[in-house]
Design goal:
With 286 residues, this protein is α+β, with helices and mostly antiparallel strands. Helix content is 44%, strand content 20%. One of its GO terms (molecular function) is kinase activity.
């Protein structure tokens, strides 16, 4: 089940493996639960290529989030960079014993995470959003970053796969010309998780919320909050706690769908034209 060289590395880190349980995987990386005498761990690994780069990027994102001490992420036990074959990350297994994460606490903690700022938008390395490469080359202005590092690469991918008909393309060209005015902000770049939907929030003991599968960057914090609302939302307690800790700027509700255009484009590229109608509806609004 595991490559011999990977098993040898794991044994050196956490002792002999007493049980290995496949849990599926995504975008070419395998996910397993590993048990040793030291406890249980989550293992994600990939042999080579883009999946290996994704695993390495996830390790970097977990380190970035953990360094802030603003919120909980699984402790990184061991990892091998993408240049290694296979690449892997081994983290603690978080078991909330069937409890649901405290979303009010998460709202407060997310606001604390967003207080960690940088002098520009981006990150020192590129990473992935889902299975799609995400460029994080630094830019000083948020509208330019959102246009050049977020929307434009997704538009190019959609064009390559035949999912950018003329009307949709013209809508993006019109939007790109207006972004400087639509997204002007004086707020500093904020460290964000980057892929914050309900499936990436798990419960640690004591109902402590913990975040997994990051796609971190220094971005506009509103973009993170907007994405939490895209697929059902996190509930009133989460948003009330976030707003109490750090209120969003006036006009957020008018910008929310614009931010989510990035994630809808990514879903269009990953999963197909079923997301095209939502993309087109947002383009007509702006």
């Amino acid at each position: 089940m595991l490559p011999p060289e990977l098993e040898t590395t794991l044994v050196a880190a956490v002792g002999p493996l007493t049980r290995v349980e496949p849990l599926g995987g995504s975008f070419g990386a395998a996910l397993l639960r590993v048990t040793t005498r030291q406890g249980r761990f989550a293992l994600k690994w990939a042999a080579a290529g883009r999946p290996a780069l994704m695993v390495a990027a996830e390790a970097h994102g977990l380190r970035c989030l953990a360094a802030t001490q603003a919120l909980r992420v699984p402790a990184l036990v061991a990892a091998a960079e993408a240049s290694a074959e296979p690449a892997f990350i081994l983290v603690e297994w978080l078991d909330g014993a069937g409890t649901r994460p405290d979303l009010a606490r998460l709202g407060e903690q997310l606001a604390a995470l967003h207080r960690h700022a940088a002098p520009a938008f981006g990150l020192e390395v590129d990473n992935f959003i889902g299975g799609t490469p995400q460029s994080n080359q630094w830019l000083e202005a948020w509208p330019a970053f959102f246009r050049e590092r977020r929307l434009r690469p997704q538009v190019a991918l959609a064009a390559e796969s035949g999912r950018m008909p003329a009307l949709r393309r013209h809508g993006f060209e019109r939007l790109f010309a207006r972004l400087d005015a639509l997204l002007a902000t004086d707020e500093p770049p904020a460290l964000i998780h980057g892929d914050l939907w309900a499936g990436n929030v798990v419960a640690a003991p004591g109902a402590t919320p913990a975040l997994i599968d990051p796609a971190v960057s220094y971005s506009q914090r509103e973009a993170e909050v907007a994405y939490t609302e895209l697929f059902g939302g996190f509930g009133p307690a989460f948003y009330a706690a976030y707003q109490a800790a750090w209120p969003l700027e006036p006009g957020y509700a008018e910008r929310r769908d614009l931010y989510n255009l990035y994630h809808l484009l990514n879903h269009l590229n990953l999963f197909g034209e079923s997301y095209g109608m939502q993309v087109d509806q947002i383009l007509r609004r702006y």
